[in-house]
Amino acid sequence: MEIPAPCTDFDTLFLPPISLQILLENAVKHNEFSRERPLETTLRFDAAGIAMENEICPRRQARPSSKVGLQNLNERCRLILGRDIEVTPGPGRFSVRLPLKSIV
Fold it and tell me: Does residue 3 form part of some domain?
């Protein structure tokens, strides 16, 4: 996992519990990876929130999916933070931005 510019305001920002774990599990579930070709994820912080991004490398044998993981995370963020997550499937990359809430 790469964190290019770490956020220095961690103690004043709130993110729903296990949100980053859900994003990482989503990336692992839907992408092929190996020791020779690891799954690389990047965390990016900005004023809008925190985004986890990974290269898309679809599994040869897709695992069954209920398609509710990101929907549940979105609902949790909407209820707790009052804002939706932003899912951005791009050419070769997949990104999910989670809103952050200031607690000061």
Answer: no
Q: What is the DSSP letter of 20?
A: H
Residue 93 lies in a domain: yes
**pLDDT, tens digit, 9 for 90 and up, residues 48-58:** 789 999 999 98
Residue closest to 67 by CA, chosen among 94, 31, 98, 30: 30
Of 33, 15, 35, the C-alpha closest to 23 is 15
Please say if the pLDDT value at position 65 is more than 80: no
What's the domain range around 64? 10-102
**Residue 42: strand, helix, or coil:** strand
Distance CA 56, CA 33 (A): 10
Q: What is the DSSP letter of 2?
A: B
Q: Does residue 5 form part of some domain?
A: no
Residues recorded for the chain: 104
